[in-house]
Recover the amino acids of this structure.
């Protein structure tokens, strides 16, 4: 049985990961990546377009499946050694969160929807993953 996950990352970081076939979560911590298994669905939610810069995006920006490879540590330079996990990404369109907000069961408080993303990694029901996937593949 597969699980489905949302990883929170700025769009520029999501793009770098999807172009190179990996994910990072929670500033490079390993814990969430270890819970993921090959075949699990991954979607990246980007609250902003660029890390560390102002502005909102609030869209799902990448979608894929966890590959059958172990978590590894990467030397990103400057002493930063984040953990990564291989993901097979699909070619998808960006999908704004707000048009599908009412359809997503994992967001219980529709007026404070950002709170659910504050931990960086969210496990979601398959039905919610399919709603997001449909929106991203609709283009």
């Amino acid at each position: 049985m597969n699980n489905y996950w949302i990883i929170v990352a700025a769009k520029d970081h999501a793009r770098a990961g999807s172009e190179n076939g990996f994910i990072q979560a929670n500033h490079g911590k390993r814990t969430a990546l270890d819970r993921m298994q090959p075949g699990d669905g991954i979607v990246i939610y980007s609250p902003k377009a660029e890390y560390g810069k102002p502005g909102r995006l609030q869209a799902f920006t990448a979608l894929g499946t966890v590959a059958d490879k172990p978590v590894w540590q990467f030397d990103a330079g400057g002493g930063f050694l984040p953990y990564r996990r291989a993901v097979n990404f699909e070619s998808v369109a960006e999908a704004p969160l707000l048009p599908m907000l009412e359809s997503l069961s994992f967001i219980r408080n529709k007026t404070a929807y950002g709170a659910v993303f504050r931990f960086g990694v969210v496990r979601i029901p398959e039905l919610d993953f399919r709603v997001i996937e449909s929106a991203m593949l609709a283009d």
In short: The longest strand covers residues 59-66. The chain is about 20% helix and 25% strand. The two ends are 29 Å apart (CA to CA). The domain at 4-137 is CATH 3.10.590.10 (ph1033 like fold).
